[in-house]
Q: What sequence folds into this?
């Protein structure tokens, strides 16, 4: 018999792979990947062709450290969406492929994506 923790981890990995197998990031249109921990939220732009991360931001980053946005919340997600769009514009990136990973598109994930769209990033 399989332990419930091992089964949960397998199911999460399968869910993430099911979403990611359809997505591929390039230098012109990188993959916008989102990760939620229990306390924080992280976002990365990834070029899958080269296998490198272009940049990443999170609630633990120096931009949000020691502010009220330093923990996972809807306001922090909106701020991270704006921050990602601004940094992408600095690197001349206007389009991205949204990778929600194993998470449903609602709540924090939806707020982050909508904020990035409003700031000018085409997802």
A:
């Amino acid at each position: 018999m399989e332990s419930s923790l091992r089964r949960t981890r397998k199911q999460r990995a399968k869910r993430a792979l099911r979403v990611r197998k359809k997505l591929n990031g390039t230098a012109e249109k990188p993959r916008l990947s989102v990760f939620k921990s229990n306390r924080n939220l992280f976002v990365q732009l990834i070029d899958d062709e080269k296998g490198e991360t272009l940049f990443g931001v999170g609630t633990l980053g120096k931009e949000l450290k020691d502010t009220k946005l330093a923990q996972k919340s809807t306001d922090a997600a909106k701020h991270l969406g704006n921050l990602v769009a601004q940094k992408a514009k600095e690197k001349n990136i206007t389009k991205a492929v949204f990778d929600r990973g194993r998470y449903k598109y609602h709540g924090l994930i939806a707020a982050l994506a909508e904020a990035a769209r409003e700031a000018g990033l085409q997802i």
